[in-house]
Automatic annotation (TrEMBL), chain A:
<keyword id="KW-1133">Transmembrane helix</keyword>
<protein>
    <submittedName>
        <fullName>Uncharacterized protein</fullName>
    </submittedName>
</protein>
<feature type="transmembrane region" description="Helical">
    <location>
        <begin position="34"/>
        <end position="53"/>
    </location>
</feature>
<keyword id="KW-0472">Membrane</keyword>
<keyword id="KW-0812">Transmembrane</keyword>
Automatic annotation (TrEMBL), chain B:
<dbReference type="Pfam" id="PF02518">
    <property type="entry name" value="HATPase_c"/>
</dbReference>
<dbReference type="InterPro" id="IPR035965">
    <property type="entry name" value="PAS-like_dom_sf"/>
</dbReference>
<protein>
    <recommendedName>
        <fullName>histidine kinase</fullName>
        <ecNumber>2.7.13.3</ecNumber>
    </recommendedName>
</protein>
<keyword id="KW-0597">Phosphoprotein</keyword>
<feature type="transmembrane region" description="Helical">
    <location>
        <begin position="6"/>
        <end position="23"/>
    </location>
</feature>
<feature type="transmembrane region" description="Helical">
    <location>
        <begin position="68"/>
        <end position="93"/>
    </location>
</feature>
<dbReference type="InterPro" id="IPR003594">
    <property type="entry name" value="HATPase_dom"/>
</dbReference>
<dbReference type="InterPro" id="IPR003661">
    <property type="entry name" value="HisK_dim/P_dom"/>
</dbReference>
<keyword id="KW-0808">Transferase</keyword>
Length: 59, 994
């Protein structure tokens, strides 16, 4: 997958999690307090993984 | 409990001194390079984003807005996820064009002095509340620690101290350029301190207040409203608005722009920052809910904004409280130092310098010192203005609310930055109109009500009230309407007016689509570095001009004696970029244009275009995809082939600039490719300048066996040339291409090898002649011995005289033989004399004489039928070798009683000779191969196979031809053509005519 595609996919995933009606799911009553951090950490982990597979000039 | 304000002040100053020591140690190289340049340092330095608002204000923000406080960091995360598309291009632009601020970037793209002025003034106005916020946070944190109202002097003392440190950090050196490695490391250290302090307080809240995870969960189960208060506002509040604001702030806030782009030492560090910086922010925010709940659980009697500090104070944890206070100082001081440095650079480049330049008031001596002092005064003024803002306005709002005013302000640059990166049609009219609209809404919706609420005399205008919006939607309202109006005006302005050529050029630079370099000087504008220095001195003074030119020369690895037009053009472009780093892009261009004007019709030289395209493609490694990547690979392959070709290749543009000079050409000429490319022919070393010019301007497409002395060494070269038809190139990039390609074939080695072969062949011939020579010398020696014997007893003087004469005669005979051998063995040695007239009959007679020394010639007649007047142009000794070899060859093929006849005549203006024998002949199938080296029909050990090859080589060298055929009567006939001597030819033709 091209690095620009990875970038856009990650960005879209970020939008999906934090700027879409999916907000209602993770802010539902009874959700653990650390859930936002967990989702945030997931995005960061994916970004680190994508960066790992990018070439040295791929930025 | 800490109750002494002076103690806290002392701790603060001591901490700042430690920071300064870290910066100083970095600049002195006391810290290991591996640490200083590690991407983690760059990532941590971006932590300047987290100010007092994050450090103290997040808890208060979480209290009122729940998990919405996370948007301020989630927006940044989204911006960094887009780093390859958003941040990396900006970083490239800033580095490549040495831009020092957002105002520089916009002025570079939207090409207007007004752009820089408006951006600077608005940024200044937009950031002042943020600076005031830091002052407020520090003074209130002191109040929390000491439990007493801090004196107003404390805020002033804090500002004065920070002014001093900001100057020490960023305006200490005599060259006020934006690259402060020490500052980056110090800010990274501050980020680490902030993070550790917050994690420590978070840890204390979890384990010190609650007693562990289990107890925390139990407390949350007992108080479900606490968790509900965090989640509920997310669905009701301005979540999306805050995300957009944080997304813009991530790279548009002056301090973020400064640390992300301007202070970046290595673009690769941004790779790690794309995930490590969001991770830093996550860790920074992880303790916030814990601290909030701990504060609620212990019913702290301080404002939630200061729970971070209040928690250890209430628990009497003095050391933790002091560490937290230092964390708060870190957050505030980092923001204020970096922001003031960035704003000072903007004010200097876009307000102060242009005004002085217009009034021709730039100092002629010590410009650097003037700029440095200008920057120091501006730092003082900006912090002073921030203090004034803090002092005048009574902030009744939380820290986050004040910070958000600045966030809405910087978000107004979002349409401009997107246009800069992605929309070539965007122009200054649209940008200024959009920004003005956005500023207007920002002022009316946020600033005027803020001033009014502070009790200052201000008309009571509130845009939200006018438009019937509720106060709850303040941020969404201000952000939506300011950005909407901004974007609409930006697009409308761009669509209704046309971008100027300069803007189009800048747009291409921003999108890296430009395939020709920016305007550069045409030929004839600059002749030397000295001239450039003299012109520049008139504006920035001789001292600064000399330093700047030296810096540009060093950057390009050139020296002051450079005269190549293409290199001088590069030097000018480099100089403009360097001046841009010093004085901003617009002023740099104004100075360069005014002093080194570009004629309107000047075309960019082809050499520059090609080099520019090459450089662009080199930078594009890894970015080209699909067909473009394949084409680039093909281009690199072709270039490599061209450079590794064992022929010298040199291409010359129509203007006379050298475009290609491959490795072999460099080896032959003794001039490296880096020296030759970009030179005109005049700039090449002797004798190449004259040789190439004469050859290119001449009619001949080939020049054979050219003898040149290069670096004291004789070289023998073949030159070939071809015109490059521009019509065949068929590309807009190739417009104006064409010119000439010259191939240079180095024959020196081959020639030396041939000489050696010929020499070996002569030695072999002498070996073959040895027996005959011995015999020939033996006869006269015997005669001399007999005569000398008789002489002993001879008394008659007449007889003695006769005998002596006979002895002398025999001696002369021996001498003749020896001389012939010497002459023969030395034939063909380099350096050779110039071609001279050679009497062919004499030459053939000499050859027959030599050959007849051998035994094999005893019973074979050699007839010399060459006429006396047959004169060729050549080298007598080398032609002698030709005939020795041919006659020897004939002798070996002949039987006893056969004859060898050598004939000659003038035919069609040249000397024609035939060497014919009556021997066994050569089979027709072998006739084509007999001149090849080492080809022989003789049994092994009897022939070297070099004789005829040497003949061929010598005749070729003379510009003649040689071939063999089989006459009808049998045997072999060698036909030779040699250039005749003109005068002899004329007289021969005249004789024939009579």
């Amino acid at each position: 997958m091209l690095s620009q595609d990875k970038t856009l996919l990650l960005f879209l995933l970020g939008l999906l999690l934090f700027a879409s009606p999916l907000l209602e799911w993770w802010t539902r009553p009874g959700a653990p307090w650390y859930l936002p951090y967990l989702l945030w950490g997931l995005i960061i982990a994916l970004a680190a993984l994508a960066q790992w597979y990018r070439g040295p000039h791929d930025l | 409990m800490i109750s002494e304000i002076s103690l806290l002040y002392g701790v603060g100053v001591a901490y700042l001194a430690v920071l300064f020591f870290i910066a100083h140690a970095t600049e002195k190289g006391w810290l290991p390079d591996g640490w200083v340049h590690h991407p983690l340092i760059y990532t941590l330095s971006l932590g300047v984003y987290a100010t007092s608002w994050s450090f103290y204000g997040s808890v208060g923000f979480a209290m009122t807005e729940g998990y919405q406080f996370l948007t301020i960091y989630l927006g940044v995360t989204l911006a960094f996820l887009l780093a390859p598309l958003l941040l990396a291009p900006l970083l490239r632009l800033v580095r490549e064009y040495q831009l020092t601020s957002l105002a520089d970037l916009f002025a570079f793209r939207y090409r207007s002095q007004w752009t820089g002025v408006i951006v600077t003034l608005f940024m200044l106005a937009g950031i002042l509340p943020y600076i005031a916020l830091q002052i407020k946070a520090v003074t209130e944190s002191v109040s929390v620690l000491t439990r007493q109202e801090p004196p107003h002097l404390l805020a002033l003392g804090f500002c004065a101290t920070l002014t001093l440190f900001a100057i020490l950090f960023g305006a200490r050196h005599i060259t006020p350029r934006e690259k402060h490695q020490g500052l980056v490391v110090a800010i990274a250290f501050e980020s680490a301190v902030k993070l550790l302090a917050l994690l420590a307080v978070g840890g204390f809240a979890l384990f010190g207040v609650f007693g562990g995870f289990g107890e925390l969960n139990a407390w949350l189960t007992a108080h479900p409203e606490a968790l509900e208060a965090l989640y509920a506002p997310v669905q009701e509040g301005p979540w999306m608005t805050l995300m957009v604001l944080a997304f813009a702030a991530a790279f548009l806030l002056p301090r973020q722009f400064h640390m992300t782009f301007v202070e970046n030492m290595d673009p690769r560090a941004l790779q790690m920052a794309t995930w490590a910086f969001p991770l830093f922010l996550l860790l920074l925010n992880l303790p916030i809910p814990l601290i909030l709940w701990a504060g609620q659980a212990t019913a702290l009697d301080v404002a939630p904004d200061y729970y971070v500090l209040g928690l250890p104070v209430a628990a009497d944890q003095s050391w933790l409280a002091l560490f937290t206070f230092i964390g708060g100082i870190s957050a505030a001081s980092a923001m204020m130092i970096v922001t003031t440095l960035a704003l000072a650079a903007m004010c200097l480049n876009h307000l102060i310098l242009p005004a002085h330049y217009r009034q021709q008031a730039l100092p002629r001596t010590n410009l650097y010192g003037w700029l440095l002092w200008g920057r120091r005064v501006l730092i003082l003024l900006i912090i002073g203005l921030g203090y004034g803002f803090y002092w005048l306005l009574e902030f009744n709002q939380g820290l986050a609310q004040i910070g958000l005013i600045s966030f809405v302000a910087v978000a107004q640059f979002l349409p401009g930055i997107l246009g800069l990166l992605f929309w070539p049609r965007a122009n200054r009219v649209g940008f200024i109109a959009g920004l003005t609209g956005g500023i207007l809404v920002w002022l009316l919706a946020l600033i005027v009500p803020l001033i009014h609420d502070s009790g200052l005399p201000m008309v009571d205008i509130n845009l939200m009230v006018w438009m019937g919006a509720g106060e709850d939607n303040r941020w969404a309202f201000a952000t939506f309407w300011s950005l909407t109006l901004n974007s609409l005006l930006f697009v409308a302005g761009a669509l209704l007016t046309r971008p100027t050529p300069e803007e189009l050029e800048a747009a291409q630079n921003c999108r890296r689509e430009q395939l020709t370099p920016s305007r550069l000087l045409g030929d004839g504008e600059m002749r030397s570095v000295e001239q450039l220095r003299a012109n520049l001195s008139q504006v920035i003074g001789p001292q600064t001009a000399a330093l700047e030119i030296q810096r540009a020369l060093t950057d390009l690895k050139l020296d002051g004696s450079e005269r190549r037009p293409s290199e001088l053009r590069r030097l000018r472009a480099r100089l403009e970029r360097n001046l841009s780093g010093l004085m901003g892009p617009l002023l740099a261009r104004m100075i360069m244009d005014n002093r080194l004007e570009v004629p309107p019709q000047t075309q960019v030289a082809l050499a520059d275009s090609l080099r520019f395209v090459e450089e662009q493609l080199e930078h594009s490694t890894g970015r080209l995809k699909g067909l473009a990547a394949e084409l680039d690979t093909l281009r690199r392959y072709h270039r490599q082939v061209l450079h590794e070709l064992p022929l010298g290749v040199c291409s010359i543009a129509p203007g006379g600039d050298i475009l290609i000079w491959n490795n072999t050409m460099a080896a032959i000429s003794g001039m490296s490719s880096s020296f030759a490319v970009g030179q005109t022919l005049d700039g090449l070393k002797d004798p190449w300048d004259g040789v190439l010019r004469t050859f290119i301007n001449g009619d001949d497409r080939h020049l054979y066996k050219l003898q040149l002395t290069v670096d004291g060494r004789q070289r023998r070269l073949n030159l070939h040339k071809a015109a490059i038809e521009s019509a065949g190139l068929g590309s807009s990039v190739a417009h104006g291409l064409g010119g000439m390609v010259v191939l240079v074939e180095d024959l020196t080695e081959l020639h030396n090898l041939e000489s050696e072969v010929a020499h070996n062949d002569r030695l072999a011939s002498i070996g073959r002649l040895a027996a005959g020579v011995a015999h020939e010398i033996g006869n006269p020696l015997t005669g001399i011995a007999s005569l000398a014997q008789n002489l002993r007893y001879e008394k008659d003087p007449a007889e003695v005289e006769l005998t002596a004469s006979q002895i002398l005669e025999q001696t002369r005979r021996i001498n003749d033989i020896v001389q012939s051998l010497i002459t023969f063995s030395h034939a063909g040695e380099v350096p050779r004399p110039r071609p001279a007239p050679v009497n062919m009959r004499t030459c053939v007679a000499e050859a027959i004489h030599l050959v007849q020394l051998s035994d094999s010639s005893r019973e074979i007649d050699c007839l010399n039928e060459v006429p006396d007047n047959l004169i060729a142009r050549g080298h007598a000794q080398r032609l002698l070798q030709v005939f020795v070899n041919l006659i020897n060859n004939a002798l070996q093929a002949s039987r006893p009683g056969d004859r060898i006849i050598i004939r000659g005549d003038y035919i069609l203006g040249s000397v024609a000779l035939q060497v014919e024998d009556e021997g066994s002949g050569i089979p027709e199938s072998m006739l084509d191969r007999i001149f090849e080296p080492f080809f022989t029909t003789k049994p092994a050990g009897e022939g070297t196979g070099l004789g005829l090859s040497v003949v061929y080589s010598i005749i070729q060298d003379h510009g003649g031809t040689v071939y063999a055929d089989t006459p009808p009567g049998g045997g072999t006939c060698f036909h030779i053509r040699l250039p005749a001597l003109e005068e002899e030819l004329d007289s021969s033709l005249a004789k024939n005519a009579r």
